[in-house]
Specification:
229 residues, archaeoglobus fulgidus dsm 4304 fold, globular
């Protein structure tokens, strides 16, 4: 029973933190010029999490840096609370970049979250910067399927509130779920994502971060090799 009580305490405290952060989220028209954009993603192996950040010029999308940080995580996997597992390491990776990004694209949710504080919003608040969630799957909400052509969009609703957009990032592929994290609105978030697309489904910054984190995870999985004498 003690374990159950401790788990309930963890959830209760995490909800309090989320509600406090959610009150600080600002969904407003973009009012900062974006010259540098970072994509972030996390990868897990055992009790280790690797957070990767890739930095690009915007809108030219020239890659100018990447950082990967691996740390231990003790927070359990609980849907709706992934920020507590991923955000600390991702923030360290972002801070490790040589230049501060003007906007951060997160492989996750912004306000498309039951308490309106997904990973992108969480990071945006803590770093006081523009942040956008670009998720590969829906977490909450209802929507109508967008058209099949690249750039087609519909809107995502939860409890009568528009919390994001469903964007066809490549013709005839599954859409992305875009939601503003902080200091940007829904249409502004979609515009930034469209400017970060190349020939792939994912925006180039988060595609880079995903691949970088996956490479770091594969290194962790390799059996240790004894040093030659």
């Amino acid at each position: 029973m003690r374990g159950i009580a401790n788990f309930a305490d963890i959830i209760s405290e995490a909800k309090e933190i989320q509600n406090s952060l959610a009150a600080k989220v600002e969904i407003v028209a973009l009012h900062r010029a974006i010259k540098l954009v970072a994509g972030v993603d996390a990868s897990f192996y055992g009790d280790s999490v690797t957070g990767s950040a890739c930095l690009f010029t915007y809108p030219a999308l020239n890659k100018i840096g990447e950082v990967s940080i691996t740390q231990k995580t003790s927070f359990p996997y609980i849907p709706g609370f992934l920020s507590f597992r991923e955000a600390p390491t991702l923030i360290e990776a972002i801070r490790g970049l040589r230049h501060r990004p003007d906007a951060i694209i997160v492989d996750g949710q912004g306000i498309a979250h039951p308490r309106r504080i997904g990973l992108a919003s969480h990071i945006g608040i803590l770093l006081n910067t523009v942040s956008i969630g670009a998720a590969k799957s829906r977490f909450i909400g209802t929507y109508e399927e967008p058209g099949r052509e690249k750039g087609s969009r519909s809107y995502l609703f939860d409890a009568g509130e528009c919390v994001g957009a469903v964007l066809r990032s490549r013709t005839a592929v599954k859409p992305l779920f875009i939601s503003p994290g902080h200091l940007i609105d829904i249409d502004g978030a979609v515009d930034v994502i469209l400017s970060c697309l190349s020939r792939y489904r994912l925006p180039e910054p988060t595609r880079c971060a995903h691949n970088t984190a996956a490479r770091a995870r594969s290194i962790l999985k390799r059996p240790s090799v004894p040093l030659s004498e």
